[in-house]
Amino acid sequence: MLKTGYTAIAVAATSAMLSSAAVGGTIEGTATYRERIAVPPDATLFVQLQDVSRADVPSVTLSAKRYALTGVPAQFELSYDDALIQDGMRYVVRGSVFQGDRLLYITDTAYPVLTNGAGNATDLILVKVQAPGAATLEGTNWIATGLHGVPLETERRPALSFAQDGAFSGTGGCNRFSGQAKIVGTNIEFPDNMAATLMACPPPLDEVERQFFKALQGVSAYVFKGDTLVLLDSSGQSVVQFAREQ
Fold it and tell me: What does the alpha-carbon distance between residue 25 and residue 119 come to, in Å, rounded to a whole number?
């Protein structure tokens, strides 16, 4: 009887554990790039499922996986916990290709999944990161079009201009700022102590400006795509996206 009792308890405990286990979902897709060149030796594909519901905070990675990349298009699969997904929130898949620590390709746009009419499959098109020396920021002017993958739709948007030796200036939408960025190849860091005016901004410009200044502090690299400039964080994800100002 004692053995039977323990068995019943064990079965009940196992059932409880199974009933409380996370229900998993899966996202499937492919990743490729348009250049007709071979995949470099030792290349890896890094794919992430991210929550980008809030524009005022960095995206949250819910699932990530790295693959050895031998050719494109390459198939990928991401598993995630269904309990993390909420209706009305915004989720995207992003990808990047590395050769060792060197970033070669990235997704420069967000690929929505799971909610707001999106499904659980997506095909990523990655763009080549500009080689050092192929193009420079010097003498360029930009208007912000997105923060953390979310389009900016305010009447006045942040702007950024670059002069010689990393000198930059611009506006957050209300206040002007300036400083000296550290630029080495395609790596860039903005200083914490940027000079800026202190005018009060009406909503929603005040929140956009706050998010923009905060986003600049997380930038570690940049990439060009035609007349688009994308500032990236240390994981190769888009932090701020700009359109060239004519």
Answer: 12
- Is 93 within 8 Å of 106 (Cβ atoms)? no
Residue 99 contacts residue 42 (beta carbons within 8 Å): yes
**Side-chain-facing half-sphere of 237: CA atoms under 13 Å:** 24
Structure tokens at 96: 């990047």
d(CA 140, CA 246): 9
- Specify the pLDDT at position 135: 57
Q: What is the mean pLDDT of each run of 10 residues along the chain (246 residues)?
A: 40 42 82 88 93 76 94 94 92 91 82 93 87 70 90 89 93 94 87 90 90 91 84 82 87
